[in-house]
What we know:
Elements: E1 3-7, E2 20-27, E3 37-43, E4 49-53, H1 62-68, E5 74-77, H2 80-91, E6 98-100, H3 101-108, H4 117-125, H5 145-156, H6 158-171, H7 175-196
Parallel strand pairs: 1-4, 2-5, 5-6
Antiparallel strand pairs: 2-3, 3-4
Amino acid sequence: MTTFLHDADLPADALAGASAVAVDSETMGLRLGRDPLCVVQLSDGEGDAHVVRLDRSNYDAPNLKRLLTDPAVTKIFHFGRFDIAMFWLHLGVVTTPVYCTKIASKLARTYTDRHGLKDVTKELLGIDISKAQQSSDWGAAKLSDDQVAYAASDVLHLHALRERLDEMLARERRDHLARAAFDFLPHRALLDVAGWEDVDIFAHT
């Protein structure tokens, strides 16, 4: 496995030809509109990862934006709702098409309420990933080796998780529900940004 660290943008030839790319992000917190986007990490599922430390002064990352909006490339997330909202707020792009392993897990793994990336990866792939750097300073001028390794670990297994979850969704005959949820996910993220973050618009009251 090789992890490539980039400043400001993804190289133009990185991830070329991939039909699906795993994506995650690191921010200074979990509040939309308050906490800036700092890092985006990506993997094509072949064992390598690209970690992009963004330039927060202008977020000029044309290659990254092009990939996030490429209709021929499925972007695989775990809880993509937050990442997609952050990309709209800071990069100005609506990420599509998408797949979310957390949504897939909630639809397929109804026997548990443990749908965090660490739990799903441990059960379905037998891999124990560390979350030790999750709450570290992602806005620092230089990322530590541990931060880079952590960022990479969050995308390296998403392709394999997607494969396992797709099998479970098909077995339970819920794959059509998952596809519909993935299609709606970018719209749900835009509702969050627009102020409906804590509102269930489908609720009776």
